[in-house]
Amino acid sequence: MTRDQYEFQDPRTQYPVLKAPEQSQPEPGLDRDLVPQADHGEQSYRGTGRLQGRRALVTGADSGIGRAVAIAFAREGADVALSYLPEEEPDAQEVVALIEQAGRRAIPLPGDIKDEAFCERLVAAAAEALGGLDLLVNNAGKQVHVERLEDVTSEQFDHTFKTNVYAMFWITRAALPRLPAGASIINTSSIQAYDPSPGLIDYASTKATINTFTKGLALQLAERGIRVNAVAPGPIWTPLQPSDGQPIEKLPSFGEQSPLGRAGQPAELAPAYVYLASQESSYVSGATLSVTGGSPTP
């Protein structure tokens, strides 16, 4: 699935149309069990030193977008603390190895970010191991497709908001006393914030919340010299999709509704996060960078 991200080419065919077989994984899903395999930039991402010496905490760093971001940050010169669920350890260890191959430090920190106390320990452990924090990427997410609202359980609603919104709040709050002027916070939103699918009402609501949280916090932190931005992905091929994120029967055509006619790969998201983390975006705060395969956002 790997493609050269630096070669001039047609974006419609840079990656093949997915045509994934019907498949199912238990939550939270593993990259190693994804068919076809996703591209996180393992073979293609080339760093240029844009994050040299930075210290990053990335949630959901074992798979999908978080994995691609962790790899890119390391190849740009950052040390990376990885947050993930204990059951995602096999994927996380692969990311640890890739970060170390890039000559940077990888700090694996498994645990459940739905727990406030763990979020506080996570930030403290990351800052201690890395000698501080400069970059925070709130990326971990929960998405479960349920056709009818009356079938969404209170437990699911609660877990989706705790994973996607509460954890972002808890982790950011704990990180702020440790973030110096020049630091960057990047939150993962979604096309769902603007164009919600009927079966993803709870998930879409959290993503709209993330947009507003990002804009408000950017205004609050401007006087401290800390930038806050978001990235809004479109349909990206990650373990989130076959682990109840999409109906199984829709997986073979996943992403084909985008204007570019295909699903995106995590590797195509990483440069957006690198840009927002780097000094190249020094005048960008309160923005949402959409990476949606051409689907318009406000």
**Estimated helix fraction:** 25-40%
Structure class: alpha/beta
User: Separation of termini?
Assistant: 31 Å
The total beta strand count reads 7
* The number of domains: 1
- The CATH superfamily is NAD(P)-binding Rossmann-like Domain
Major sheet: 7 strands, parallel
Categorize the overall geometry. Answer: globular
Instruction: Kindly provide the radius of gyration, computed on alpha-carbon positions and rounded to a whole number of angstroms.
Output: 18 Å
Percent strand equals 5-15%
Number of helices: 7
CATH top level is Alpha Beta
Can you tell me the residue ranges where pLDDT is under 50 for at least 5 consecutive residues? none
- The secondary-structure element order is EHEHEHEHEHEHHE
What CATH architecture would you give?
Answer: 3-Layer(aba) Sandwich
The overall average pLDDT, rounded, is 96
At CATH level 3, the topology is Rossmann fold
Instruction: Name the strands of the widest sheet in spatial order.
Output: 3-2-1-4-5-6-7
